[in-house]
Amino acid sequence: MNFSPESLMMSYGYKPELSEGAIKCPIFQTSTFVFKNAEEGKNFFEVAYGLREKHPDEELGLIYSRLNNPDLEILENRLTLWDKADDAAVFESGMSAISTTLMEFLKPGDLILYSSPVYGGTDHFISKILPSYGIHTLGVTAYDTKEEVLEKLQNHEHGDKLAFVYLETPANPTNALIDISMYKDVANQYSSEEKQVYMAVDNTYMGPLWQHPLEHGADLVIYSATKYIGGHSDVIAGACLGSKELIGRVKVLRTFLGCMAGPWTGWLLMRSLETLKVRMDQQAANAEKVAEFLSNHPLVEKVYYLGNITPEDGRQYDIHKKQSKSNGAMVSFDIKGGEQEAFRFLNNMKLIKLAVSLGSTESLAEHPATMTHADVDSGLRKKMSITDKMIRLSVGVENHKDIIWDIEQALEKV
Ligand SMILES: *Cc1c(COP(=O)(O)O)cnc(C)c1O
């Protein structure tokens, strides 16, 4: 029987007999592990340091919690199921998953092609930190066609040095979709026998349930596990998933940067994964109701929601049909007016919390232009229609009638 991921989140990869029969994986709050004998210690290190291949039936032994820990290993095994990935690496934050991955696959002189706008922290890392290590950058947007992307590469001084493609789709906060397989073609066009151009997709907005980038040609999927995976606004964590080979490389750098998640974070995320599907299903169902209400409200000018994409949207519609398994639970909208009206709305909410972050059980609202996207270049902000009248909602698991009641009464105050 091939059980669905949601049926395996309570048990997969955990053997109760190794933990006194405890039904749940305990928190292995320990820094180091005792070897049975010196020979075992030698064997474990030979495998961990890549001095020899692991024998087919050999279990990777526990050595030290920066290298491995049961709470992390079991969590990583469970995470692979949703994306059908071979392997996963868990980090102490989404940013450490992103920065470690980029540092592993980029060397001085290389060029990274990335979709813009990306998450603020990612944008800073790519546009400010990577160049200080001699790495060149080239931004593209959701609206660039394949021809335009190839032209940008041809016209770029270091276009021939393309080494990595980094996408975030749907774009935050507008829900503009980026065609993952189109960028795979671009990456392939720049790959050769000596040099493989890898592609990573930040799937935080839609994952791990509603979009599976590996199916569309991505080599790596990255998550801020702080968002839907953690889902309770109480933990910061990240993950990177992909083939055994690529994740093996990412894990080696993680070991030496020391940015793995600790056992307590691992345990919290395992607990979160048990309810991941019911939470996300409910959030998506609520978002549909919220988007419908907003779309019909006279004080709302425009709603940015995947469910509102129609065949008239052309390419966006085709990508949506190909790539999204749900319309998600992120809804942005333009209120009639500007910053003053948007702030009045935000200041009058009673149930929805005024906070950044997303994907949690409670509904959250924020003002992208002055909060999450305050640092984005003003020209790009305008191009992406991130204006003073935009409000971003992350829809939670509350009763949808209460969420809508809150939106309605806050709009009345405007
Ligand atoms: C939050 C977020 C990140 C960063 O994750 P942290 O866990 O805060 O480090 C990266 N990408 C996206 C899309 C995010 O929403």
Automatic annotation (TrEMBL):
> Which GO BP terms, alphabetically?
methionine biosynthetic process; transsulfuration
What domain of life?
Bacteria
Q: Entry's Pfam families? A: Cys_Met_Meta_PP (PF01053)
Give the InterPro entries listed for this entry.
Cys/Met-Metab_PyrdxlP-dep_enz, Cys_met_metab_PP, PyrdxlP-dep_Trfase, PyrdxlP-dep_Trfase_major, PyrdxlP-dep_Trfase_small
Q: State the needed cofactors, names only.
A: pyridoxal 5'-phosphate
Protein keywords: Pyridoxal phosphate
Q: Does the keyword Iron-sulfur apply?
A: no
Q: Which GO terms label this protein's molecular function in UniProt?
A: carbon-sulfur lyase activity; pyridoxal phosphate binding
Chain positions found as N6-(pyridoxal phosphate)lysine: K227
The answer to whether UniProt assigns keyword Transferase to this entry is no
This protein's GO CC annotations: cytoplasm
The family line of this record is: Belongs to the trans-sulfuration enzymes family.
Return the protein name.
Answer: Cystathionine gamma-synthase family protein
Q: Which organism is it from?
A: Fulvivirga marina
The upper taxonomy is: Bacteria, Pseudomonadati, Bacteroidota, Cytophagia, Cytophagales
